[in-house]
């Protein structure tokens, strides 16, 4: 019955949607009131009710269970049995802290037969500092967290990073751990700078708004749109961004509402200096002073540059072609009435809009311009030499005679007329006044007070060229990276905050979303559908605090529903509303509307406590039931729940799920006994070697380059709000589990844990691994499989021989000063040795050494070194093949200095690398054990190169070293049978799945 | 098993995509949903949407809206913007205006000056008599297979937005790329290889991974970037090689893993994810071998390698063909990192170098596809993100007294692309620019229209290939795009 009802009501709703879709003629939405009666009565806009808890047959249960069971019982279904205790602990542990239970925690729980054992577990988990790390990451998905802004220079592969994004992440973790009420949590993230009496540490919360994607090609409007999307979908479950170009097609969001929010955020900016979080600590004198000095220096340099450039820039606009172009532009745009239209025209014609307006004013009167005015008045299509002649002679007497002379050749087009003026005026461009008054009046056109080309210095920015802008940008570049360097050097934390503009700007609708097409004025104010009858514009600064308070108003029907639904989704795998960021007419309807209201009501009344919400949910029988869907018997009838409710919308069992990427990586670290549990601080690479050992929430997130490992396990896109993770199963995940050095490292580390080391005999060892990983003993069958495998594996030859491993160890990689100093690269990632674990690090030049060659960068006086160290005394020869990479269309690219140098003898060979290969042979060299041969590239410029080196031993074992073949990930080592076995356990479905 | 699945589902009669996103068989065999058991019998009425159901094996092959003309695409991306008036759009008027101001002007990115006649001659080729410049002697021999669109236009004369427009149908915002849409719509027929592969030597083109992003689609639909200057497979596909275990050792590991997982599955038989995991390891194991094979062009016969030429680009195209042949759905081949075709200066030398580096290999690709019977259902697309101005640019060395230094600025107002194979009208020229080649004049084709047409060739109504995200059904062409019927065979 219920099922039929769902279907029927869904059908009705879709018919409703269809009906107003089809009734709406295209383009008719402008001006029509988008708020219609059916919207006002739409479920999600109704006040949150307090529905009575239904009576159910199944004895005493929690209110949540009563709502769920009422629906189940109506279908002749009920819950599955309670999950076994091992499953329950593992589920609760992953759900609340994202980590598996320790063997001791498992043993304790299994042994604790008291009635409150499970409640105690929940208390412990909710009090754990790891709780904020798990749920903070959920929040960061919604808040599209990233440590980087985006690409700022594609040619140089240059990124911009946020210096202090991490302080926002840490604020979120801490707020959740402290169970900051959700309404306060929101208020801080929208308006921490405006909350009266706020602690300075809360300014970090503003990262919510400031960490938008930026960089190349991202306009101001898009950044604002991102904030609107974040706030509306993230906090309200409304897709307000759909109303950017026109009224929302389906939901009651007029485009004016979009621009009301737009106006709020448009009146904010990033402060020039990010505020310190801890103002009591006395601040940060050292870094702050360096930064202030640099700012002053740059300001002085730019001022000097402008002064020097100004005369030349003005002179450019006094040249004939420029005068002619602008004059013609004035003529062609004479019909355009508004300045906005003319600006658009100027953009399209590539004209300086500021000067265009000045020229427009200049030609209005005076004898110099009489002919121009006459010619410009000739109607379109009538212009020819004859009509021009007539127009000229009509005004010749009142004209400047020099102009009349110049127009003796009759122009055939207005363009030709503009050219004549251009040449005439440019010829009169003299530094000093002329004696001849007619000549002087021409000169005055360019040099007189208020002449269009006599621009004042204060207007420099209005006439500067894009190349001037680039030049200034070059001077500021250092200033841009300096705060970042300071942050990563450990300067005291600052907030990635925003502030209101000192002078507020009025808001406008941008017609069809076009920033150049301003429409009606709008006030900063809240959404109409959520504002009741009287809507007051915001008056406090940009209005962010008022916006926050409108969102968290207990009467707001959406905010509480949206967050309790999200929490529900993260616990059960699907929300009561299965479109968690769309509670509009196009979203799904709640499966249990009364339950949703019950949860939201209790949430608000109980003080917006997320921890108490978790507790309520996790104490239910619904949450505690098994995830296995065997048929159940209700009142003597066997019903196959799978057939009745295949999607498990009614929750007749718990949903099983795969670990997400963070849970997987953290669990691997736990398995290896390696997890570093320190909270907070600067991000670290989760991928590079030496492997970061901290929880994955502290990983460096680069929105331009989400690493393969994150991507294949469906990490949330850091570019925009992400309401739910996908949980795909693809072979790239298997490749990672099979071949990633990180995974293998953890498998090896697992065998160094005391529990395994202490176990005697194969059987005990297998048992210890099962206890460590799964909290249980192996089944007979599993034990047998393990022992067979170990026995069989022992006989296999390893992939690498000892000699191969040793050969790999003969090579090292680094940089130097070219005088013998060598400092090894500290990091290995993406198949190469590097100076930073993050490729694209704006603080360090990008150079690396990889198997087949490397990339040099532009660092005067520095060299890159691939070093070979003799493992024993030997006589050797060396063969080297060096070439620059082929570069498309590159001229002047040849010439990368390279050499082979031996300690202490000196250079064995020196050459300049070209794009045609250079082969070098060194016939015989005698080396002592520990002596080094360096293969050196000078960092003359950014240039890739290939370099293969073969070193042959001339006597004895006649070993051969090959720089390409010997190149390995530094974490590579031979595995024994037990390590391989441990790796299988880490890759197993039991490790990967939560029942 | 995987083979059978492919064949079966590919013969399913065409149906509306959203309703048939997954066939029942796909789900049963390639595994189902991440959240609980899903009723296969109700799938017929399900819309799979971004905010609703996370799912498993999103790459299973699927049928499009109607019978496709092309089954796969190779996009030869001439990044930086090749000049139309020097390649496929002859303009004799420009010769007359060489060095003189043109009577027309459109906004360019930088300052431009007088007319700049092409340094190259054009000649008619083939039965169709389509004119091609002497920059492409080899491609010219295939002119009767080409469908040349001379009236392309786009919004802006800047690389970044125009690249995103050409690839993702939007100037700025992160939107799924064409290849991602196609992989989402069609899945992939070879589960051992990625469905959407991007080839570019030595680094990324401008705008990097945004050019092949999956946007809001699941990340499995994102293009897999391959640095074609690399010859080592490990740098081509991450974690593809085992550096710790030999293949027999790994086989034993996977046998044990399967045994343990089967035991685990016994009490969870209904859950398709467990089966999917078991299969994913087998696929990965096969992928290690197959991917190595697919990318190893040295396995081609000598004659084929000779035909493509022993150049970086020849190797790139040969790799692309090997991938297409193995069932990869969409291969995008970039000529080089950054923007090689961006000839603001020295156009006479740089365009020549660039054309020479590719001409023979492109012709070889067309010949090779034809010989293998693949050209009819492989859509080949050649073109850049925009074209170049018929007038000289006035920055840097360009515009001075020595014409060898001259270059052309970006031009979004008019440019040329061509297509071949895959159901396009061959030996045909569509549309025209003005007499100087500055702006599209006759039958203008916007990038959105091109996208609509490409999707049509692949069997999709561009208005119906949608994805629900943030409350809206998005499509590649957004609210634009008109199918250009004249381009169809």
Topology summary:
The complex is a heterodimer of chains A (995) and B (489).
Chain A: H1 2-22, H2 37-40, H3 63-74, H4 85-97, H5 103-111, H6 117-127, H7 130-142, E1 148-153, E2 158-161, H8 165-177, H9 182-191, H10 207-210, H11 220-236, H12 255-266, E3 268-269, H13 285-316, H14 320-332, H15 339-349, H16 353-362, H17 370-376, H18 385-395, H19 401-406, H20 414-427, H21 437-447, H22 460-463, H23 466-488, E4 499-500, E5 507-510, E6 518-522, H24 544-552, H25 559-572, H26 593-605, H27 610-618, H28 621-624, E7 632-634, E8 637-639, H29 641-644, E9 657-658, H30 661-671, H31 708-712, H32 731-739, H33 741-750, H34 754-758, H35 761-774, H36 780-793, H37 802-809, E10 811-816, E11 823-824, E12 827-829, E13 832-834, E14 848-850, E15 853-856, E16 863-869, E17 874-884, E18 896-902, E19 906-913, E20 918-927, E21 932-938, E22 943-953, E23 960-962, H38 977-987, H39 989-992, E24 993-994
Antiparallel strand pairs in A: 1-2, 3-4, 5-6, 7-8, 9-24, 10-11, 10-16, 12-13, 13-14, 14-15, 15-22, 16-21, 17-20, 17-22, 18-19, 18-21, 22-23
Chain B: H1 2-10, H2 24-30, E1 72-77, H3 92-96, E2 112-115, E3 122-125, E4 130-133, H4 137-140, E5 146-153, H5 159-168, H6 178-186, E6 196-200, E7 224-227, H7 233-236, H8 247-266, H9 272-295, H10 302-308, H11 312-325, E8 330-334, H12 347-371, E9 378-383, E10 387-393, E11 408-411, E12 415-420, E13 428-430, E14 432-433, E15 440-442, E16 445-446, H13 447-457, E17 467-469, E18 472-474
Parallel strand pairs in B: 1-8, 1-9, 5-13, 5-16, 6-7, 6-8
Antiparallel strand pairs in B: 2-10, 3-4, 5-12, 9-12, 10-11, 14-15, 17-18
Helix pairs in contact in B: 1-2, 8-9, 11-12
């Amino acid at each position: 019955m219920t099922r039929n009802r769902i279907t029927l009501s869904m059908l009705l709703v879709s018919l409703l949607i269809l009906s107003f879709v089809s009734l709406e003629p295209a383009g008719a939405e402008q001006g029509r009131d988008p708020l219609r009666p059916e919207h006002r009565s739409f479920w999600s806009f109704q006040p949150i009710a307090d529905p009575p808890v239904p009576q159910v047959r199944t004895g005493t249960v929690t209110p949540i269970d009563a709502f769920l069971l009422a629906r189940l019982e109506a279908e002749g279904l009920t819950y599955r049995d309670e999950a076994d205790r091992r499953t329950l602990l593992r589920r609760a542990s992953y759900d609340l802290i994202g980590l598996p239970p320790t063997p001791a925690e498992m043993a304790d729980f299994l042994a604790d037969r008291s009635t409150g054992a499970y409640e105690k577990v929940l208390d412990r988990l909710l009090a754990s500092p790891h709780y904020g790390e798990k749920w903070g990451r959920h929040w960061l998905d919604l808040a599209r967290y990233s440590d980087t802004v985006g690409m700022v220079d594609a040619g140089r592969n240059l990124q911009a990073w946020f210096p202090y994004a991490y302080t926002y992440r840490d604020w979120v973790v801490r707020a959740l751990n402290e169970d900051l009420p959700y309404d306060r949590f929101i208020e801080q993230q929208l308006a921490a700078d405006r909350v009266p009496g706020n602690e300075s540490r809360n300014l970090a919360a503003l990262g919510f708004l400031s960490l938008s994607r930026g960089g190349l090609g991202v306009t101001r409007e898009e950044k604002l749109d991102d904030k609107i999307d974040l706030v509306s979908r993230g906090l309200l479950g409304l897709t307000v961004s759909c109303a950017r170009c026109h009224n929302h097609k389906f939901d009651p969001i007029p485009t004016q509402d979009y621009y009301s929010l737009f106006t709020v955020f448009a009146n904010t900016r990033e402060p020039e200096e990010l505020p310190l979080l801890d103002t009591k600590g006395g601040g940060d004198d050292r870094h702050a002073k360096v930064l202030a000095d640099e700012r002053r220096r740059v300001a002085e340099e730019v001022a000097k540059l402008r002064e020097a450039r100004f005369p030349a820039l003005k002179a450019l606009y006094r040249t004939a072609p420029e005068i002619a172009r602008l004059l013609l532009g004035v003529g062609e745009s004479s019909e355009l009435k508004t300045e906005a239209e003319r600006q658009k025209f100027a953009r399209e014609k590539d004209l300086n809009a500021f000067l265009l307006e000045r020229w427009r004013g200049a030609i209005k009167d005076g004898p110099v311009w009489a002919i121009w005015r006459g010619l410009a008045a000739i109607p379109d299509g009538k212009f020819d030499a004859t009509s021009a002649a007539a127009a000229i002679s009509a005004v010749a007497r009142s004209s400047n005679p020099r102009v009349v002379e110049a127009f003796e050749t009759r122009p055939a087009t207005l363009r030709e007329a503009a050219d004549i003026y251009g040449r005439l005026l440019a010829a009169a461009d003299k530094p000093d006044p002329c004696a001849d008054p007619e000549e002087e009046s021409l000169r005055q056109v360019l040099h007189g007070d208020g002449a269009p080309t006599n621009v004042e210095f204060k207007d420099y920015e209005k006439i500067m060229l894009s190349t001037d802008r680039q030049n200034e940008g070059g001077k500021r570049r250092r200033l841009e990276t300096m705060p970042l360097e300071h942050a990563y050097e450990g300067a005291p934390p600052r907030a990635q905050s925003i502030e209101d503009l000192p002078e507020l700007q009025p808001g406008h609708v941008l017609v069809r979303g076009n920033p150049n097409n301003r429409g009606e004025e709008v006030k900063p104010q809240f959404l109409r559908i959520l504002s009741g009858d009287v809507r007051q514009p915001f008056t406090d600064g940009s209005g962010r605090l008022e916006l926050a308070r409108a969102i968290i108003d207990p009467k707001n029907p959406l905010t509480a529903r949206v967050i309790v639904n999200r929490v529900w989704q993260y616990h059960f795998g699907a929300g009561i509303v299965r479109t968690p960021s769309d509670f509009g007419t196009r979203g799904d309807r709640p499966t249990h509307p009364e339950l949703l209201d019950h949860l939201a009501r209790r949430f608000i009344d109980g003080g917006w406590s997320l921890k108490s919400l978790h507790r309520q949910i996790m104490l239910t029988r619904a949450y505690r039931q098994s995830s296995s869907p065997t048929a159940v018997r209700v009142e003597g009838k066997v019903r196959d729940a799978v057939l009745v409710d295949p999607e498990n919308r009614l929750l007749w069992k718990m949903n099983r799920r795969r670990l997400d990427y963070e849970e997987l990586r953290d669990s691997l670290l736990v398995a290896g006994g390696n997890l570093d549990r320190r909270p907070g601080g600067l991000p670290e690479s989760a991928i590079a070697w030496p492997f970061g050992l901290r929880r994955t929430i502290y990983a460096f997130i680069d929105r331009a380059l989400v690493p393969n490992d994150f991507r294949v396990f469906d990490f949330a896109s850091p570019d925009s709000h992400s309401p739910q993770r996908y949980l795909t199963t693809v072979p790239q995940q298997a490749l990672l589990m099979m071949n990633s050095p990180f995974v293998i490292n953890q498998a090896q580390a697992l065998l160094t844990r005391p529990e395994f080391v202490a176990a005697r005999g194969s059987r005990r060892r297998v048992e210890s691994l099962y206890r460590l990983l799964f909290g249980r003993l192996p089944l007979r069958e599993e034990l047998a499989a393990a022992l067979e495998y170990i026995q069989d594996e022992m006989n296999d030859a390893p992939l690498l021989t000892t000699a191969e491993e040793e050969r790999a160890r003969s090579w090292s990689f680094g940089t130097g000063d070219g005088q013998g100093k060598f400092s090894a690269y500290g990091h290995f990632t993406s198949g190469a040795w590097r100076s930073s674990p993050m490729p694209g690090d704006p603080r360090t030049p990008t150079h690396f050494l990889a198997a087949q060659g490397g990339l040099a960068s532009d660092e005067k006086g520095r060299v890159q070194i691939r070093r070979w160290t003799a493992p024993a005394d030997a006589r050797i020869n060396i063969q080297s093949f060096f070439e620059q990479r082929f570069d498309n269309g590159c001229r002047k690219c040849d010439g990368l200095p390279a050499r082979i140098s031996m300690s202490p003898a000196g250079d064995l060979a020196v050459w300049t690398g070209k794009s045609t290969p250079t082969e070098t042979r060194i016939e015989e060299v005698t080396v002592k054990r520990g002596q080094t041969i360096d293969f050196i590239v000078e960092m003359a410029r950014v240039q890739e190169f290939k370099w293969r080196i073969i070193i042959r031993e001339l006597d004895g074992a006649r070993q051969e070293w090959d720089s390409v073949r010997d190149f390995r990930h530094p974490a590579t080592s031979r595995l024994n049978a037990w390590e391989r076995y441990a790796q299988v356990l880490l890759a197993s479905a039991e490790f990967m799945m939560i029942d | 098993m995987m083979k059978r699945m492919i064949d079966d589902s590919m013969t399913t009669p065409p149906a509306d995509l959203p309703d048939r996103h997954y066939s029942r068989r796909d789900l049963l065999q390639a595994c189902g949903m991440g959240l609980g058991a899903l009723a296969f019998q109700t799938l017929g009425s399900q819309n799979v949407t971004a905010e609703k159901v996370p799912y498993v094996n999103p790459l299973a092959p699927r049928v499009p809206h109607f019978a496709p003309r092309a089954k796969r695409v190779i996009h030869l991306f001439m990044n930086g913007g090749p000049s139309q008036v020097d390649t496929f759009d002859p303009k004799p008027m420009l010769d007359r205006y060489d060095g003189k101001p043109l009577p027309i002007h459109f906004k360019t990115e930088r300052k431009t000056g007088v007319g700049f006649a092409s340094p190259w001659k054009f000649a008619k080729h083939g039965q169709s008599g389509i004119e091609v410049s002497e920059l492409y002697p080899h491609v010219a021999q295939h002119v009767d297979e080409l469908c040349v669109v001379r009236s392309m236009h786009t919004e802006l004369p800047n690389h970044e937005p125009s690249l995103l427009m050409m690839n993702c149908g939007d100037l700025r915002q992160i939107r799924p790329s064409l290849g991602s849409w196609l992989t989402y719509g069609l899945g992939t027929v070879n589960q051992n290889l990625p469905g959407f592969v991007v080839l570019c030597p030595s680094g990324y083109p401008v705008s990097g991974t945004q050019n092949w992003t999956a946007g809001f689609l699941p990340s499995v639909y994102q293009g897999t970037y391959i640095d074609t200057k690399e010859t080592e497979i490990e740098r081509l596909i991450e974690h593809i090689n085992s550096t710790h275990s030999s293949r027999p050792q790994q086989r034993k590991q996977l046998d044990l893993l399967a045994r343990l997982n089967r035991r685990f599955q016994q009490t969870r038989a209904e859950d398709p994810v467990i089966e999917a995991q078991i299969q994913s390891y087998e696929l990965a194991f096969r992928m290690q071998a197959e991917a190595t094979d697919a990318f190893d062009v040295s396995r081609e016969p000598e004659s084929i390698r000779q035909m493509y030429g022993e150049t970086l680009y020849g190797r790139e195209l040969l790799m692309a063909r090997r991938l297409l042949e193995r069932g990869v759905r969409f291969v995008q081949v970039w000529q080089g990192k950054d923007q090689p075709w961006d000839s603001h200066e020295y156009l006479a030398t740089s365009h020549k170098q660039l054309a020479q580096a590719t001409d023979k290999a492109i012709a070889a690709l067309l010949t090779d596809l034809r010989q293998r019977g693949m050209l009819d259902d492989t859509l080949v697309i050649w073109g850049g993100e925009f074209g170049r101005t018929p007038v000289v640019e006035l920055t840097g060395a360009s515009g001075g007294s020595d014409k060898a230094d001259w270059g052309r600025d970006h031009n979004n107002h008019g440019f040329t692309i061509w297509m071949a194979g895959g159901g396009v009208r061959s030996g045909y020229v569509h549309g025209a620019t003005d007499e100087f080649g500055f702006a599209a004049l006759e039958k203008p084709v916007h990038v959105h229209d091109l996208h609509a047409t490409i999707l049509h060739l692949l069997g999709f109504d561009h208005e119906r290939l949608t994805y629900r995200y943030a409350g809206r059904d998005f499509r590649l062409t957004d609210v634009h795009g008109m199918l250009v019927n004249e381009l169809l065979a």
